[in-house]
Amino acid sequence: MPELYLAGLKETEREASWREWLTLDIDVFVAELEGEVVGFASGGAIRERVEGFDAELFAIYLLREAQGHGIGTALVRRLAGSLKERGFGSMVAWVLEDNASGPFYTWSGAVRVCSKEMEVGGVMLPVVAYGWGDLEAIAAGVGSGSV
Ligand SMILES: CC(C)(COP(=O)(O)OP(=O)(O)OC[C@H]1O[C@@H](n2cnc3c(N)ncnc32)[C@H](O)[C@@H]1OP(=O)(O)O)[C@@H](O)C(=O)NCCC(=O)NCCS
Q1: Is 83 within the bounds of a domain?
Q2: What predicted TM-score, i.e. pTM, was given to this entire model?
Q3: Which domain holds residue 88?
Q4: Which residues of the chain are under the pLDDT cut of 70?
Q5: pLDDT digits 0-9 by tens, 80-110
Q6: Are 127 and 113 in contact (CB under 8 A)?
Q7: What is the 3-state secondary structure (H, E, C) of 48-73?
Q8: What per-residue confidence (pLDDT) applies to 42?
Q9: In this structure, which residue's CA is closest to atom 41 in ligand 1?
Q10: Is the CB–ligand 1 distance for residue 122 below 6 Å?
Q11: Ligand 1 mean position to 62 CA, how many Å?
Q12: CB of 71 shorter than 6 A to ligand 1
């Protein structure tokens, strides 16, 4: 992510955006440890057509200290189950090509589907779509990494 973009993020603006997003038809799950929110995953109907997929994992983030303990896996499973209940069958996630989380997606059974450039903070960056073909399999823990 461009440093300028990250430095320009403001908590009050993000809070206002989240208040609006939470009124939309999206699913958001948070992970809590000892009563504190340590991460979230959000998803819903796919925003941009990707052949063969109908839903999208919009974002997943965990606090650094909460990473590496299976919480991301639990959030992806929970989101997949919810999207499945809503009638979706598959899911993609757009991820920055350089993002270190790529192995997490492949571990959870996703495959690279396509790529494009996306504008982030005024800079064009390469992004990859990871796709899961079967939400039911994710929710049931049948991914190649047993998510
Ligand atoms: C990516 C993220 C959601 C994964 O959640 P997590 O709870 O840390 O992942 P899990 O513990 O469930 O990992 C499951 C498996 O995925 C793989 N994996 C997860 N994160 C990985 C990483 N950064 N690099 C390599 N493999 C990774 C591992 O194989 C892991 O299994 P193992 O621990 O038995 O080896 C979380 O680390 C995160 O929020 N990272 C920072 C923000 C981010 O990159 N978000 C995605 C933006 S698109």
Answers
A1: yes
A2: 0.92
A3: 3-140
A4: 142-147
A5: 999 999 999 999 999 999 898 999 999 999 9
A6: no
A7: CCCCCCCEEEEEEEECHHHCCCCHHH
A8: 98
A9: 61
A10: no
A11: 9
A12: yes
Overall number of domains in the chain? 1
Q: How far apart are CA 55 and CA 33, in angstroms?
A: 28
Question: Measured on CA atoms in the order 45, 71, 14, 112, is the torsion positive or negative?
Answer: negative
Please count the other Cβ atoms lying within 10 Å of the Cβ belonging to residue 26: 13
Ligand 1 in contact with 61 (CB < 6 A)?
Answer: yes
Let me know if residue 147 belongs to a domain.
Answer: no
Q: Ligand 1: does its nearest atom lie under 6 Å from the Cβ of 100?
A: yes
CA dist., res. 12 & res. 44, Å (int): 24
Alpha-carbon distance of 93 to 135, in angstroms, equals: 13
CA of 127 to the centre of ligand 1 (A): 18
Q: Is ligand 1 within 6 A of the CB of residue 99? A: yes
What is the Cα–Cα distance from 27 to 4, expressed in whole angstroms?
Answer: 30
Q: 18 in a domain, yes or no?
A: yes
Query: In this structure, is residue 146 part of a structural domain?
Result: no
Any atom of ligand 1 within 6 Å of the Cβ of 75: no
* Residue-level pLDDT at 142: 60
pLDDT at site 146 = 40
Write the single-letter amino acid at 108.
Answer: S
